[in-house]
Amino acid sequence: MVEHPHRSHPTIVKRLKRAEGHLRSVVGMIEGGKPCLDIAQQLHAVEKAVAQAKRALIHDHLDHCLEETIGPLPREKRGSVDEFKQIAKYL
């Protein structure tokens, strides 16, 4: 299997490293006895950051790897691929 570095990967890595830092701070908040509401808000932010990274990775894969596999399609035949990309945002 050949690995494909994608242009979006550095951005995704930055996003995940930021989420990693936030997660470490959440652990510190729990260990420090911070209020549950504050902890829950920070956990929500971490979850959202990871979900956005996942979404970006999946969309990048669809845009590059899927296109590479099926090749360029005429506009009238792109419907299924475009629809698949749209539904993937709900992952």
UniProtKB/TrEMBL annotation:
One of its GO terms (biological process) is negative regulation of DNA-templated transcription. InterPro entries: Metal_Tscrpt_repr (IPR003735), Metal_Tscrpt_repr_sf (IPR038390). Pfam families: Trns_repr_metal. GO terms for molecular function: DNA binding; metal ion binding. Gene3D superfamilies: Metal-sensitive repressor, helix protomer. Belongs to the FrmR/RcnR family. This is Metal-sensing transcriptional repressor.
